[in-house]
Design a protein that fits this description.
The chain is mainly α. It has a single domain, classed as Growth Hormone, Chain: A, CATH 1.20.1250. Helices cover about 85% and strands about 0% of the residues. Helix 3 packs across helix 9. The longest helix is centred in the last third of the chain and has 59 residues. The radius of gyration is 19 Å and the shape is globular. It starts with a helix and ends with a helix. About 60% of the residues are buried.
């Protein structure tokens, strides 16, 4: 593995999870700051995810038809701009506009990061490389809620977005320097219709569809629990943002350890069995939250268990995404990530319909159902692979 060239790619994987999950800690604060309800505050997630999902569907194909390097640099720059606008916002509409720009930029980062790791690493090392990529994702999940909570308490919520601005810009410069040798390798004479054709071709594969909807359902369960536990702890136990952030960050701390192990196990035991293992651990953690009486330390441990399971499952699913159709890695990564993160976009809105009238127990059972559906879809991918 060429670590010099891979390092900015790996660092780029931190950006999306850090900005996406980090705002969850800030939702109760935004409710108080702008005098709005949790439903309105959750729009800062949904209207970040809408451009992220929509444009991500095409970004991988655009990169494959035109220029991967310029496409990824565009993503870093646009994300930095959106982060700056979010930090400078003075009301909910301006914050939403900044988040929309952020999401648009992130759409040109996430699928390319996933596909580039698959392209730059030898096939026998893909599981290990994806395990390292999983560490980066979970580092973002870990540091996002923790950093946003600490910065909100010490400096104010806008500083989280200022940090994202500096981080994205710096990684973009790093990638610009280390990828200079890739200049001039763009495909010439491409058309946008060619990119659309690649999207259609990728989605036509049965394995791609089942894998993508498996990721969608798993993310529904994952982000749903994270989102509404944050509000539940704030409202029910008056837990400060930094304490809530630490609880949510335990998913990432555990995932940093679990992801590389899951990658190695996937290389040896197969991707789908390790996905089952991860999903089972997630369900055990959610059931633990349902039966134990609340205490801060118990929640820290259970969210660490939840993070162990999610990192294990995601590492295997992400590896399958770059293996399932090797000739179409970038377009497949776009389709996969588009549907995967649609679960993030829709989860707060859909599960709020359960949370508002029935509180956190209904959300927990809905999350378990989402994880089970994800595993069922993943089993269909396994079946199709055996048939092939």
């Amino acid at each position: 593995m060429n670590l010099k060239r891979l390092l900015p790619i790996y660092l780029g994987a931190i950006i999306g999870p850090m900005g996406g999950v980090g705002i969850i800690t800030l939702l109760p604060v935004l409710c108080l700051h702008f005098d709005i309800s949790i439903q309105w505050a959750s729009l800062t997630i949904t209207l970040y995810m809408v451009p992220y999902v929509v444009f991500q569907l095409f970004s991988g194909s655009i990169a494959q038809v035109f220029d991967t390097r310029r496409t990824l640099l565009f993503g870093f720059g646009t994300y930095a701009l959106g982060s700056l606008l979010s930090g400078l916002s003075f009301n909910l509409p301006t914050l939403i506009c900044g988040r929309f720009v952020q999401g648009f930029g992130a759409a040109f980062i996430a699928p390319l990061v996933l596909a580039l790791v698959g392209e730059m690493v030898e096939p026998k090392q893909i599981g290990k490389a994806m395990g390292i990529l999983g560490v980066m994702y979970t580092t973002g999940v870990t540091m996002g809620p923790l950093i946003s909570g600490v910065l909100e308490v010490s400096l104010g919520w806008p500083w989280f977005f200022f940090l994202l601005t500096a981080f994205s810009f710096s990684i973009g410069v790093f990638y610009w320097v280390t990828s200079r040798e890739d200049r001039g390798t763009a495909t010439k004479g491409g058309k946008f219709s060619d990119a659309l054709a690649l999207v259609k071709k990728s989605y036509s594969h049965h394995n791609v569809r089942y894998l993508s909807f498996s990721a969608f359902s798993l993310f529904m369960g994952y982000i749903g629990l994270m989102t509404f536990v944050a509000d539940y702890l704030k409202v029910t136990y008056s837990l400060p943002s930094d304490h809530t952030g630490l609880i949510l960050s335990m998913t990432g701390f555990a995932g940093i350890v679990a992801a590389p192990i899951a990658g190695i196990l996937g290389d040896r035991r197969g991707r789908i069995p390790i996905t089952y293992l991860g999903g089972g651990i997630m369900i055990a953690a959610v059931l633990g939250l349902a039966v134990v009486e609340y205490s801060y330390w118990k929640y820290l441990l259970l969210f660490a268990l939840f993070g162990t399971g999610s990192a294990t499952a995601w590492t295997s699913l992400n590896t399958l995404a770059v293996e399932v159709v090797p000739d179409l890695r970038k377009p497949v990564a776009s389709v996969y990530n588009c549907l995967k993160f649609s679960g993030y976009a829709l989860s707060p809105l859909i599960l709020s319909l359960l949370y508002i009238p029935f509180s956190i127990p209904a959300v927990r059972w809905a999350c378990i159902a989402c994880i089970l559906i994800s595993l069922l879809l993943a089993s269909r991918v396994h079946s199709l692979k055996r048939e092939g």
